[in-house]
Amino acid sequence: MTLLNYQQAPKGVSVKYTALAISLATLVACQPATTESTPAVSAEVAYQALPNYQHDVIGMQEQYLEPDFWLQRLEHPERLIMTADEVASFNDRSYAVQDEMVHLAEHPTELSASALHEKVDAISSLPSYPRFYASGQQATEAQLQAYRAATNLAAVQETNPVQFGLVVKRSPMRTFPTLDKLYSNDLDLDIDRFQETGVFPGMPLAILHTSRDGKWYLAQSYHYLAWVQAKDVAIGPRDEVLAFASKEPFAVVTEAKVETNYTPTFAPASEVQLDMSTRLPLLSAAETGHNVHGQNPFASYTVQLPTRDSNGQLALAPALIARHHDVTVGYLPYTEANVISQAFKFLGERYGWGHDFNARDCTGFVLEVYRSMGIDMPRNSSQQGYGSYGDTVVYDETSTNQEKLERLAEAKIGDLIYLPGHVVMYIGDIDGKPYVIHDVHGLSYRDAEDQHYEGTLNGVSVTPLIDLGFGAKDTYLDRIYAIKSVR
User: Which of 209, 224, 263, 474 is least surrounded by CB atoms within 10 angstroms?
Assistant: First the structure.
């Protein structure tokens, strides 16, 4: 097998990944030709079997948890689905047709009083359902009004300048400017109804407003509007902030999570968590010298990291990411192999509603996988499922399950299947049944005795699709309302 020198690795492909691609191609070449719809593969997949492995997930074997099980079934795993230019055109179309997706370079630099009021109301209206604290105590009208008052509408002026900033630390985006957690009446403590999404270091934001206590910003990201903690954002000149997000060359985190190297001399660049799809400019030794925070950078990726000075202003600094981490120069090529490989890097991570619990939910999972290949999407499942981008089939109450099965029979790797409040990713068939990977909360199905079984998954899982139950009466198949190919 040929080993590549790091200088030979093409843009968007790490050395680690290139070597894997060569060995995978060799493996596939040594096997009989197969297609994606082939129901079985003769070769056994090598994997570390756990002793006394048991589970309660219908239709699953331990080997199905290995990405290689699915990769070896692909006919053309490394064939480009879209080139980099085609991905850019795809994104342009998505931004054009999806109102919730925002080119921050086109964002106005000031908002009228009515426009700002409308923005606050869009995210911070009083909830229409009762909300409860973890203790079981229902939030009173006065408590809910206090959260609303914290949005500081009294400070809105006739004209309100918009600031711009870069995220310096992974941070939650919230319905109201508070970290208080409130829940529905079922007191499912995994679902904080004030949690909206998360933002990662290096993401640019338009800052529209400040909370009454000055500790929160109402911020617009490329696909979401909500409240973010001011301490996790550095304010900078608009042009500098926007230019940061398009600097080249750039590194993309392709591991589930990495941390910058520890440094005792500069805390803002030390052990900063970077999630999959985080994009940061790459620096060279010509720019940094051969000593970065007390360490020679030659065995690391040197990235430019936004940090926040004592006045909350933007200060860019070098940071190191050790080369043993999965990081690529540029985005990964958009291939079926990369879709599966990236998705399986999250396997077993706990479910985190709205990026809570330092994790992600079903749409966050999909977003990070596709964004590591440079593809942007809306944040919420309904925005994605009904979105006009991609090749989308939408079903209504007149649609039959047979129609859905016929479309699933033609599914391509990475196709997204939408149910109310949920999305799953197609990864292949076994014996004619579609299998998916998804970040999922609950688990239900009809067992061998046709009894309803209720359990929990609460993490990134591989499951069959049509055997899962959606509540006690419906199946996943019953509730599918859209199937989307990101192509």
Answer: 474
